[in-house]
Amino acid sequence: MDTIKDLGNSINYAFSKLGLPLYDDETVKTFVGNGSVNFVMRSLGEAGKDKFDKVFELFTENYIKHCTENVKPYPGVLEFLEKNSGKCAVLTNKPIEQTLRILGKFNLEKHFTCILGGDNAPERKPGPAGVLKIIADSKWNLNETIMIGDDIPDIGAAQAAGIKVAVLLSGFGRAHEILELKPDYAFKDFAELAANPVFA
């Protein structure tokens, strides 16, 4: 899901309340990864770490209220889920409340065997415990499971769990850093992934 506009609006809301400079969406993308705590820390940088508690409070309050305003599926995602309904699960570092609201906006929960967020999974990505719980609860074969993600924590979680991983280079992660980790599959966008025979 493309959540960058709402993330950007919420961090800029927090910054505006404290008189801090605002960010454009492309800059906000560079802060994403490993959950909201790290997102806010990266947005503040070393010089602003003394403001973390207040910024995190303002950001979280605003994002909970507005996390579905501008969110949208990446092109091809809805069609892929319709075709593969019941064969997919969600593992995100985003809190489960926000995750369910975002999925609910598009009535997507019905497609997933399991939905785990950063606060109801056994551990956050890049730890493997969430991946392994999903596989066990869904009664999937480890050797036949592929994780689809767009950032370094996704690759780490999949590789630590011993499963294959496909990454989208159009997501939040930095392409050159992602490719250095040698994912099993790399696609420029979700449409290219969906057209690959492995995922057909």
From TrEMBL:
GO terms for biological process: DNA repair. PANTHER family: PHOSPHOGLYCOLATE PHOSPHATASE (PTHR43434:SF1). GO terms for cellular component: cytosol. This is Phosphoglycolate phosphatase. Keywords: Hydrolase. Its EC number is 3.1.3.18. GO terms for molecular function: phosphoglycolate phosphatase activity. Transmembrane segments: none annotated. InterPro entries: HAD-like_hydrolase_sf, HAD-like_sf, HAD-SF_hydro_IA, HAD_2, HAD_sf, PGP-like_dom2. It comes from uncultured bacterium contig00029.
